[in-house]
Amino acid sequence: MQTMTEERASFAVRPTNIAADATDHLHYLGNYVRDIPSSLPRMMENAHDWEHLPFVHPSSFAAIEEVESGTWGWRCKTALPNNGGEQLIELLVDNERHYWATTVVAGPAQGTQIHTQAKDNDAGGITVDVRFYLPQPPEHEEQAAMILGYLQAQYATLYDEDEALMLGRQEALDERKALRGTDDNSAVDLGPEAELDHARVHEATLDGARVLVRHWQGQWVAHAARCPHALGPLDDAQPDANGGITCPWHGYRFDLASGSEERGRCGALRLYRTAVEDGRLVVHADLR
Question: Is the N or the C terminus of the chain less surrounded, counting Cβ atoms within 10 Å?
Fold first, then answer.
């Protein structure tokens, strides 16, 4: 695979818009159509979100590294699972039409393009029509059917996973809106400390946000229930041996001692002060 400088050079000769005749020289293989109980804003947000791919779709992507991105879409180097090689992937977006085109620029399946149209549907969600194009026609019908079946199954899995992410993202936005300004508690009493299960994550609401309280390395730690990057859920995330907690959506890792993200990719995870007062565990809204 090329170096990052060479990859940027490879992409530099490519336009950042979807050409009207982009598929004229390709072989149309077939499509995959799916209804999703989400919205166009969440779908377009998802299309632009290259970072989630190896974390939400581990069976399709082992790793990803950005080459460049913008309102037009993104270009990345990806690693395939099971030592399947590396690819240079380009995803161009027509935001107004809710349309995007993915191209394998280099690596396995080079030249393949996948074009997706998203539209509102009568059920209150959206419908995506994913169309598969190959650089060359398959050698025979059986091969064509095999490739199409593989791609349809892969995209069924991808959209199972993306649907869960989009619904989770909408739930997080709705939760933040519902809680904003509804609770100005300066502290929450979780009850007698001796009776609290150390193996369980407890929950409180402070300053209009959910807070998770867990016993870790002999002390009680309280932190925001949502990742500050994109509101990913931290309810099921477990601290690692070095005191880090990782968001399942994008792999951002936060230090439970300082709240900082290990690579400085976003703001700090909010931490709250805990104290045992008269034998009761109290979580205070002021930062730790």
Answer: N
